From TrEMBL:
This is Uncharacterized protein. The chain crosses the membrane at residues 44-63, 83-101, 184-205, 317-334, 354-379. Keywords: Membrane, Transmembrane, Transmembrane helix. Signal peptide: none annotated. The keyword Ribosomal protein does not apply. It comes from the Eukaryota. It comes from Neolecta irregularis (strain DAH-3). InterPro entries: Tmem135.
Length: 390
């Protein structure tokens, strides 16, 4: 294969490991920015294509939801478009950035020659700044996301990129000294509780706008707050599911958090209103000492919100740790070369990440559920019935 074609497929370092030293030196001399950009873009397409097929085909087929051929037919177009979007993003960003850098260099060289009009003078001074090429190239290359199939995944990528942009802008302002008088506690960590509040608000009130994958993740680790159907419950009677419980939490806030009196303690004293009939099997079996409707819905078997939260953290921490172990083990397989060089440090670092991520995710989910009960106990009924979820 010709060296000029080889450099678009493998890097000089990779080529040197499989070929003779003299020839690899010639390939290294022929390497260029365009070749490196093409290698990065083509590999991103291959990795993205394989990842989408693994997520949308291999995992559902292993679970046994549908056949492989049916899943592959549906996911192939999505995988190709997703890979093309990332490939176009990498290629366009590299070439636009290189073009703008050359343009800026020419403008800087001509600063001694004033333009004929004031508008051109402002435009040239703007284009000659060092921040102009990366900003414009990022904005223009970001339009490649339109190739990505529409859906929650594209929205998630856009939100993630916007968040990282805000983070980079904040760090730039802080490093340049534009934010000298901010308090010590002010920082990027404040974005997380705000974003989490918006997600919980969307999950409770706008379920159709909430990502299904994130909802499945949250509900899968919330068994302490979502009562399952008892084994001795009659099979011919309906039992509320997860969606019914979430919808009735929103309905409780719309009704300004009415009081609750258990029908077990005083039969006939509390009749479940028609708009709560869907969750009446849970409310009718709630503990007699629970005074709040949201508590009766979320943890009907235990009247103590604190004990439920502590039990949730102790129980779900193990489940989340297992999930994080599989996740970080998969990441380790992708970096097997680095793991092979120093396995001990990788194991120590992975254990630290698993422990930190597991505790973080567990306490975040538990705090979200516990705050529903805590706010009903602390705040008045008519005070921010919906805004308390933000």
């Amino acid at each position: 294969m010709a060296p000029s074609l080889v450099i678009y497929l493998v890097s000089p370092k990779e080529y040197a490991s499989i070929c003779k030293a003299g020839r690899s030196q010639h390939v290294q001399e022929c390497d260029s920015l365009s070749a490196a950009t093409f290698r990065r873009a083509s590999r991103s397409f291959t990795a993205t294509y394989a990842l989408i097929l693994a997520i949308d085909v291999a995992i559902p087929a292993a679970i046994g939801k549908k056949g492989i051929k049916q899943l592959l037919r549906k996911a192939q177009e999505k995988a190709i478009r997703t890979g093309l979007s990332f490939t176009a993003l990498f290629l366009s960003h590299a070439f636009i950035l290189a073009f703008l850098i050359r343009t800026r260099q020419k403008l800087v060289q001509r600063l001694g020659h004033p333009p004929p009009c004031k508008s051109l003078r402002y435009f040239r001074s703007l284009c000659s700044t060092e921040y102009f090429p990366p900003i414009i190239s990022g904005v223009l290359s970001g339009t490649a996301l339109v190739i990505h199939p529409p859906g929650h995944r594209r929205v998630g990528i856009a939100i993630y990129l916007f968040t990282r942009t805000v983070e980079a802008f904040y760090r730039f302002m802080d490093d340049e000294g534009y934010l000298p008088n901010l308090p010590w506690w002010f920082g990027l960590w404040m974005m997380f509780p705000f974003a989490s509040g918006q997600l919980i608000l969307a999950m409770v009130y706008d379920d159709d706008c909430f990502p299904n994958s994130l909802k499945s993740f949250l509900m899968g680790f919330s068994n302490s707050y979502l009562k399952k159907r008892p084994t001795d419950y009659p099979t011919h009677l309906a039992w509320p599911g997860t969606d019914a419980i979430i919808n009735n939490i929103a309905e409780i806030s719309r009704k300004n958090y009415p009081k609750f009196e258990s029908p077990v303690l005083r039969p006939g004293a509390f009749i479940v209103p028609p708009f709560f009939q869907e969750v009446s099997p849970i409310l009718n079996s709630a503990h007699p000492s629970i005074p709040y409707l949201s508590c009766a819905l979320l943890h009907p078997d235990n009247p103590s919100c604190t004990k439920v939260l502590l039990g949730f953290c102790a129980k779900e921490l193990v489940s989340v740790s297992k999930f994080m172990f599989v996740f970080y083990a998969g990441l380790g397989l992708l970096r097997y070369k680095k793991v092979k060089k120093d396995p001990l440090s990788f194991i120590v670092m992975t254990v630290e990440k698993i422990a930190g991520a597991s505790a973080f995710v567990t306490f975040c989910i538990g705090t979200c559920w516990a705050c529903i009960c805590a706010f009903q106990r602390i705040l008045p009924r008519n005070f921010l019935p919906r805004g308390r979820y933000v």
